[in-house]
């Protein structure tokens, strides 16, 4: 196995105008860099072209379809990642359509990789979206880690400069999640070099 640091892609799941997602992602990326066990890449879905019209053939039959030119950089970065942290709000008790579309456009990019979550929203702190993501990634043979970070009523927790008013508890939650993510990402990187089962 290579000694290069594992690659962690932090994905900003929302793309709407005026979104809060980049603030949460910037905070988490800082935690991940401080953790020191990953090379961190922050992926903003708003920078990619992600049409809702999917390819004609399902991904299990054609895992590498022709993708739009505006998705090339995104696909390359997803392929390179050993682990992901999805930064997601709750949209109507689920995930933003941008996130579902990018998941559905890809297949092998998620396969046998470790996934963690940072959620935020008004009442439920992203937990409803996170639970849906666990089901979705199970279908894609990814491993979601138990620990997560959640910010209910995030607008009370961050100040106008995007800094947490009381950072200790969220920082500890991030460390716990990153510890699990690194353990699983290491195990899965080794496992991916073995022959896959059905
Ligand atoms: C379409 C939509 C649906 C939403 N549904 C929920 C919801 O079900 N539960 C909740 O607590 N907040 C909900 N919210 C509030 C969002 O969590 C909040 O606006 C958050 O800032 C959205 O993330 P974003 O700013 O990155 O887009 C919803 C917001 C939008 C735009």
Automatic annotation (TrEMBL):
The keyword Amino-acid biosynthesis does not apply. It comes from the Bacteria. Transmembrane segments: none annotated. GO terms for molecular function: oxidoreductase activity. Pfam families: FMN_red. Residues 7-153 form the NADPH-dependent FMN reductase-like domain. Signal peptide: none annotated. Its EC number is 1.-.-.-. Keywords: Oxidoreductase. The keyword Oxidoreductase applies. It is an enzyme of class 1 (oxidoreductase). PANTHER family: CHROMATE REDUCTASE, NAD(P)H-DEPENDENT FMN REDUCTASE LOT6. This is NADPH-dependent FMN reductase.
């Amino acid at each position: 196995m290579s000694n290069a640091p594992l690659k962690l892609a932090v994905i900003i799941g929302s793309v709407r105008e005026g979104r809060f997602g980049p603030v949460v992602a910037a905070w988490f990326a800082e935690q991940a860099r401080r953790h020191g066990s990953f090379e961190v890449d922050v992926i903003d879905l708003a920078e990619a072209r992600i049409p809702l019209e999917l390819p004609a053939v399902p991904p299990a039959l054609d895992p590498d379809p022709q993708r739009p030119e505006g998705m090339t950089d995104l696909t390359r970065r997803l392929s390179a990642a050993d682990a992901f942290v999805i930064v997601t709000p709750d949209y109507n008790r689920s995930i933003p359509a941008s996130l579902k579309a990018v998941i559905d456009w890809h297949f092998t990019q998620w396969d046998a990789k470790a996934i963690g979550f940072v959620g935020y929203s008004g009442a439920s702190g992203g937990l409803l979206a996170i639970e849906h993501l666990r089901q979705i990634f199970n279908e894609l043979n990814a491993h979601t880690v138990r620990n997560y970070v959640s910010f209910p009523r995030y607008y009370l927790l961050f100040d106008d400069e995007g800094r947490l008013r009381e950072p200790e508890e969220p920082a500890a939650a991030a460390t716990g999640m990153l510890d699990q993510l690194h353990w699983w990402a290491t195990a899965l990187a080794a496992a991916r070099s073995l022959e896959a089962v059905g």
